[in-house]
Predict the structure.
Amino acid sequence: MKPGEQIDLSLVIPVFNEEGNLGELVERCLKVCRERGRSFEIILVDDGSVDGSTVMIIRAAREHPSQIIGVVLNRNYGQHAAVVAGLAKSRGDVVVTLDADLQNPPEEIPKLLAEIEKGVDVVGTIRANRRDSFFRKFSSGLVNSMVRRATGVMMHDYGCMLRAYRRPIVEAMLQCQERSTFIPILANSFARTTSEISVNHAARTRGDSKYSFLGLISLQFDLLTSMSTFPLRLLSFVGTIIALSGITFGFFLLVMRFLMGAAWAAQGVFTLFAVLFVFVGAQFIGLGLLGEYIGRIYQDVRARPRYFIQEIVAGTEE
Ligand code: UDP
Ligand code: MG
């Protein structure tokens, strides 16, 4: 493949200490791509591996010039950053991302491409028989339903990275300069049409998951903040509710004081609570207001493209 040449399909695969899987991964991906009989490139992004992965990637790229491209990052930046690095290097009309640990079988790629050919912008996948620990499945179910509610985009499984994107979506994502991203959500925000198909999921046979408990939590925060600034707004809601309940409580005390006498309200101790509630509520509302500004600053600092033109239609006069 010469530089600048049009390519049909790019695979982008982030690799972090996957020496046990790389050999088989490359072999199976090459087989699947070759069977299609169209131009392709496989981009292996080494995300600062400290095992033999880097050497293996370099060797694979030398062995299969014009088919495999190695992108070696200087240190570990995290899965999503590594994928972005791969996307930036990709040239395919369609880009498919997948994990290097063979949990996403490369044999499923043609299914995704068939779906893309129907004209959708982004194809997501649902892991049919997901082979992960109960804890992972449970927390990911929780997060998925939260994302669905917040974004209104009905995708079932945001965690599975076996996904296909059309070129314009990739270009739009590359225009986003933000540091912490969650690619499936970013892509959906630019897609006009999305669809989801069910794919097989394999258990990890070699190596360990690269996400520790803390790593997972930080990933969830990336997901949350890349999605919305709603939590900041939540502060005002909470504050309003606390302040309102303080005021209601105050009124209640006042009425009861007249009906039942001073002893009933423990000589004014409860009144203190009512006053406290109002002030605590006011503080929360203040925080929420700050949050509104911070949210706006965050949007501006992220500098996502303000809009994304998918197509320009202009009629010509006869
Ligand atoms: N990965 C990466 N950088 C990281 C962590 C993970 O490039 O900092 C890659 C990893 O090599 C694999 C993919 O991201 O190809 C998914 O990682 P993993 O299988 O550990 O995640 P899990 O399946 O446990 O969610
Ligand atoms: Mg995995």
Q: What stands out?
A: The first strand starts at residue 7 and ends at 15. Residues 99, 101, 103, 204, 209 surround magnesium ion (ligand 2) (CB under 6 Å). The radius of gyration is 26 Å. Strands lie at 7-15, 40-46, 68-72, 92-97, 122-127, 163-166, 194-199.
